[in-house]
Sequence to fold (175 residues):
Amino acid sequence: LVFLNEVFNNDTEAVGALQEWFGYVLSGRTDLQKMMMLIGPTRSGKGTIDKVLIELVGAGNHIGLSGRDLQGEFGLSSLLGKPLAVFSDERMSMNGQRFVETLLRITGEDVVTVAEKYKPAWTGRLGTRFMFMSNEPPTLPDSSGAIVGRLILLYMPRSFLGREDTGLVTKLMEE
Fold:
């Protein structure tokens, strides 16, 4: 809590929202149809939050992605069995509308067909939750506004550049 209060400038609503997000990811639920977006300057704690969440869900249950990774014939196959997909420093510039449509389908619990190389296609609901971490909000084109309704947006205003605690993740996991 000391760490969270420090990175969110004692914003108890932001701390509570992040705690709920952790619970959502760890519970395996997808029915809230939400995604997390952490926006803040370099060294504001985004990566630390990601590392702690990876430790809690398990490295094998996490995947780091870019928007380009979901494109192409086999793009969704990397999400199979992954409850957490994290986009670090995502700046949507190519075919953003298709990317948004994919996010909406998956977070909306739609049935999707996933092509896998040298395997039969898989069809079902993906249990993947998405988290974005960036210094600036990515461009997510959606004239309907549906994507905005699915986002939990948290701003981390402080940079700890030059004052990093390299053992912080270990300390946080011990408590």
Remarks:
- The mean pLDDT is 88.
